[in-house]
Amino acid sequence: MIGKVATGTVTDINEQAYFVQIAGQTYALPKVEVTQEEAPQLGSRVAGFIYENKQKKRVMTQFWPVAGPDEYGWGKVTQTRRDLGAFVDIGLPDKDVVISEDDLPADANRWPRPGDQVLVRLETDFKERIWAKLADENIFEQLAQTFPDNLNNRNLHGTVYSSRPIGAFVITDDYYLAFVHSSQSYRPLRLGEQISARVIGTSQYGRLNLSVLPRSYEEIDDDAQMLLVSLQREATKTLPFSDASSPEEIKEHFGISKGAFKRAIGHLLKAHLISEDKEDGTISLLKQGED
């Protein structure tokens, strides 16, 4: 019964909730979770989604989650735990569901981060625990739309639905299937990551080939390259400079103006080659920029 929409009978009511009995089990339906026009009465038949909340209590809600056992929906990742998996918000008021670590990429760098989105359905195991299960390739093929012929060099937005060593599989906002080869990205793209990428061709499998690398005129300039080399030479891969550093400090260390320094940082941040800690006043090399 857990993890499904079910119908039961109202057997009790108090100020906060209705109590609904289904197959001998009673579920609390908070009054704030009721969406039907007429308030339930004793003996009324009401339907709701059944789940176990964070307090381990079995409850009902009439706010349907975005996903179900036979329905896929986009959920937002709220947190990850290396020993468990990724927690996903599917619209329940006080519970996130988990994608098991067994269903996530082996490389933790490809795991989703908070704010990323994934297409999932729900599955309840024999211990009555609800899990989120990722949509597979067949589901995305069913969702896919045929793309037009005039997309070359166009920028498209999309979501990574599978991240593998060879590259990332993407569904665009227009529901075109696409692929980003690992050579066309500075770093591994995460499952659930929303990306902006350029169309560079069409594959023999009927997908768009995309690149997240900048066009030639967007490539990092000499100043950015100099900063990158400076970071690579540091044992800690970190330098005590940021856009808050004084022009004098920047000029003395790098030999460039503060304006040029800020532009270089901006290019490297956009290329996902460095990170900036404004509180500590530092810039650090990201793993993919170490080569």
Blueprint (SSEs and pairs):
Blueprint: E1 5-13, E2 17-22, E3 25-30, E4 45-52, E5 58-61, E6 73-81, E7 85-89, E8 97-100, E9 117-124, E10 130-134, H1 137-143, E11 155-164, E12 167-172, E13 177-181, E14 194-202, E15 208-211, H2 222-233, E16 238-239, H3 247-254, H4 258-270, E17 274-277, E18 282-285
Parallel strand pairs: 13-15
Antiparallel strand pairs: 1-2, 1-4, 2-3, 4-5, 6-7, 6-9, 7-8, 9-10, 11-12, 11-14, 12-13, 14-15, 16-18, 17-18
Brief write-up:
With 291 residues, this protein is mainly beta. The chain has helices spanning 137-143, 222-233, 247-254, 258-270, and strands at 5-13, 17-22, 25-30, 45-52, 58-61, 73-81, 85-89, 97-100, 117-124, 130-134, 155-164, 167-172, 177-181, 194-202, 208-211, 238-239, 274-277, 282-285. It has 4 domains: 5-61, OB fold (Dihydrolipoamide Acetyltransferase, E2P); 73-135, OB fold (Dihydrolipoamide Acetyltransferase, E2P), CATH 2.40.50; 144-211, OB fold (Dihydrolipoamide Acetyltransferase, E2P) (Beta Barrel), CATH 2.40.50.140; 218-289, Winged helix-like DNA-binding domain superfamily/Winged helix DNA-binding domain (Arc Repressor Mutant, subunit A), CATH 1.10.10.10.
